[in-house]
Amino acid sequence: MEIFECLDTRKTIRKYSDYIPTDDEIKRIINSARLAPAAMNTQNWKFLAIFNKDIKHKMADAVLNKYDEITSRIDEDTARAVSSYKAHSTFFETAPAIIVCIETNAPSFMGGVLEKANYSKEEISKMRPDSYLLSMGGAVENMSLAAHALGLSSCWMVAPVLAEKAFKEILNLKEDDKIVTILTIGKPYADNPNRAPKKPLEEVMEIIK
User: Fold this and answer.
1) What is the pTM of this model?
2) pLDDT in tens, 22-33
3) Sheet strands side by side (includes 97-103)
4) CB 13 within 8 A of CB 186
5) Secondary structure (DSSP) of 83-148
6) By C-alpha distance, which of 29, 32, 163 is closest to 96?
7) Over residues 127-133, mean pLDDT
């Protein structure tokens, strides 16, 4: 698929057919993440491709349990509003495959420099973004586009990460591993699903000469 066609036609998909992606397809998708730009070329990332239904079910249960914990600590009106997020946070269980995207621990050189210069954490946060998180974003975007180029679809999910602590136990991850997102992978349930509307270019762009 030509790159601009891929960008123009990619859609976020939350409902999938019964088709199971092949190992080769998953490898091609994750390889596209490996080739993404990385801050200081640290490449401090890891990607777990999960097909196992029992593991996905345990992960979904962990998300529901986390929502129950959260709603038990807030007022009823807010809890009712939050409850609608549950289904949107657990549909990954029905995806044929998911890719859990993990940022592995790596020291930040400039972060360390600014700490030595006695800047506060708040000042450091304003002076520089989380470069490793930006790297992970590039890797996930590459996978989303690669999946689309292979005739597959994806959904970039952040809400399930509420249950990161439980996920680490389920997936046997290290304490300092950081789960950034879950990417669902599969073929769309419908032939031509709608794409969520995007803001017009003129609304989000400004050219300064």
Assistant:
1) 0.90
2) 999 999 999 999
3) 45-50, 97-103, 178-186, 153-157
4) yes
5) HTHHHHHHGGGGSSEEEEEEEPP---HHHHHHHHTT--HHHHHHHS--HHHHHHHHHHHHHHHHHH
6) 29
7) 81
